[in-house]
Fold this protein.
Amino acid sequence: MTTWPDRRICEMLGVEVPIIQAPMAGANGAPLAIAVANAGGLGSIPCAALTVAQARMEVEHFREQSRGPLNLNFFCHRPPVEDSDRMRAWQALLRPYYLELGVEAGLVIGGPSRAPFDVAACEFVEDVRPEVVSFHFGLPGPDLFARVKAAGAKILSSATSVREARWLEAHGVDAIIAQGFEAGGHRGMFLNSDVTSQVGSLALVPQIVDAVRVPVVVAGGIGDGRGIAAAFMLGASGVQLGTVYLLCPEATTSAVYREALRNASEDATAITNLFSGKPARGIINRLMRELGPMSPHVPEFPLAGAALAPLRAQAEPRRCGDFMSLWSGQTPGFAQPLPAGELTQLLVEQALASLGRIALPGDLETGPVAIS
């Protein structure tokens, strides 16, 4: 019987299979989390872009449809300092597009579209008591962190370097998500802002595994069972998958987004800061081509999106994705339009088959523990 070589993540999170569905703001809510959880993985709900009331409704929906553990994900970025001059400069850069689409600059309404984890979010966590809470861009302050721990949640956070992984372990996380350069969406960087220095998963994961004692989860560059098996060979205890689920019927991916994914090749993504102000990997579109994927003129995260919102509102109904974020990792070709539960089971079968064909480090010592 083929087995998982490391069951620490399964046992820690209370899941049957070591697959975490990545929290993807704008692309998933409770239905996708439910499907993955009911297939034995860890379902995740992205909360950074939700009000507490909206997040509560998502959790209630999940609890009605699944008995599996739930991960709630939050951002820990520093609240932005609004800079009116910088915002006007950003709008001026976008003015040709406003004119083209008939958008009045006065329609642009500023304000953050992503809220950092705060007291209200912490009180929400204490009330709904999710089994897992994950953070992006570091961790909340010590007081809030302690309250999340006291609520009974296992805490995960993303690291893009060995230094970040060591920092997270020293500050008490239960497991680390090693986010490689290949991953879609926002970089989880918090100790270094130089995105050009970010390391790929193949090099990053074994170095983090060697540097920390807590379990490590791989995010980035994994799109099928072979990738999952490879993660274990690198010393990981589990994987976090996002892009592969974006075409599932339970995902909230728009029609324009789905079309872009279906047509994307492995070299069709790039790191950009245009859509939010922080570097994130997405499918290259017109805005990225014409302004360059990285611009020094973009307002601080997450203020940049406000100026783009009216452009997207005009373009998307015309089936045009030129002015919207199309987050994707470097494996868009692995996304499949299967029900998420069925896809999860397929990934498990592929991974176990691949693991059965290779000699694992554990086989030479005490041997792996059988999957339940």
Summary: The first helix runs from residue 8 to 13. DSSP finds 13 helices and eleven strands in the chain. Confidence is low (pLDDT under 50) at residues 362-372.
